[in-house]
Amino acid sequence: MKPLQIIKMPPYFKILNCNITEVLDGLLIEDNSILFLDIYHEEDLDTYLSKNKVLKLDNVIQIIDNSNKMSFIPYIKSKKDLLDQYRYQDWDFSCIVFDKNLKCLFYIRGIEDARENGIRIKEMEPNLYNKYFFNYQE
Fold it and tell me: What letters, b where the CB count within 10 A reaches 16 and e where it falls short, cover 3-35?
């Protein structure tokens, strides 16, 4: 296996040659949740989050758009949920990590960079990477 590679360019970070589910599972602390989405550009994600009302229910995130259409998307809150949902994702998956108050902490994409697989992380506030990814420092 290729050695773990970490590239830091705040607010962006890349972790290559990692076990992706292990990295994502490490974010499921402090009542955080992960939501896989079919949104692949961060500008679209910003628009999506700012134009829709997001509510956390028992096992789903409810999203209400401007025309009052509702979507219900299951969110991930355990390693079992993560493993179940991750197997349906493509290598270039897209997900967001919310805290317990539905504040977006990270936008994460699956990537392939120079034939190395991994993830690209955008932290939504300074120093979140250092708080949550303490096992992935160089």
Answer: eeebebeebebbbbebebeebbbebbeeebbbb
**Number of residues in the chain:** 138
Q: Are 15 and 123 in contact (CB under 8 A)?
A: no
| Nearest alpha-carbon partner for 73 in 93, 92, 59 | 59
For residue 50, pLDDT beyond 70 = yes
Amino acid at 80: K
Entry pTM: 0.89
Q: How far is CA 53 from CA 7, 50, 74, 88, 127, in A?
A: 34, 8, 16, 26, 26
Q: Do 54 and 101 touch, CB atoms closer than 8 A?
A: no
pLDDT per residue as tens digits for the range 13-42: 999 999 999 999 999 998 999 999 988 888
Burial class (CB in 10 A: 0-12, 13-18, 19+), 46: middle
pLDDT at 135 over 90: no
